[in-house]
Every structure is written in C-alpha cells, then in structure tokens.
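step=encode ok
step=design start
structure_in=
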C-alpha cells in the first residue's frame, strides 16, 4: 500500500506531473532540457527528478557529466495504466501543450553546453 501511495504522491505535484508528461511525449531528456521548458533552476528540477526516481517513475542514464532521464522501462502495471490514462486525459491540457511547444522551440536553438 505504501508503494502505491508514493506513486500517486509523485504525480500530485504539478511540476512532477509536467515532467512525466514531457518524458512521455519526448522520450529521454536531460536536466537542461527540462530547465528550459519549465523555466526552473537546476536544483528544483533535479529535486523533482530525484523524487520521481525514488517513486519508480524514471530511469537515469549517465553520459559523461550529463544525466538523462526517461520514463521507467520496468514500471509496474499500475504505472503503465496510469501513463495511458495521463496520455488520454491530461496530455491535452493547455499546460502540457505549452510545454511541448516550448521544448520544440528550445530544440530549434543552437546547441548549448548541455547538448
């Protein structure tokens, strides 16, 4: 029961929900991608990513000094079902669409030190 509560708590925060939706639509992202879209400092984004990691929502991959995040490939059945529900119900909210547009604009810019 405690694990299930943690799964829902992770999605209860608007920033973490936005991160999950971005990872769902864009795939693997680094912290700087998320910082640019969410307009939040690295420490805040990293803190939310750490929470999502502890809640089994994301996997981490290191490449050099950069950390890349993606939705967990080993997620439980409930998480997979919740992701489908999110995609159908929440993925079209104005905030989610705005985040996807912001990410597309960010990717059009010349590569930063992050990429």
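sequence_out=
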């Amino acid at each position: 029961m405690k694990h299930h509560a943690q799964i829902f708590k992770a999605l209860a925060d608007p920033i973490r929900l936005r991160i999950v939706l971005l990872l769902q639509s864009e795939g693997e992202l680094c912290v700087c991608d998320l910082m640019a879209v969410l307009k939040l400092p690295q420490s805040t984004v990293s803190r939310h990513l750490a929470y999502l990691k502890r809640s089994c929502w994301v996997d981490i991959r290191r490449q050099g000094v950069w950390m890349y995040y993606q939705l967990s490939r080993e997620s439980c059945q409930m998480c997979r079902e919740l992701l489908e529900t999110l995609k159908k119900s929440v993925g079209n909210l104005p905030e989610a669409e705005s985040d996807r547009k912001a990410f597309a604009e960010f990717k059009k810019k010349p590569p930063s030190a992050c990429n």
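step=design ok
step=annotate ok -> The mean pLDDT is 89.
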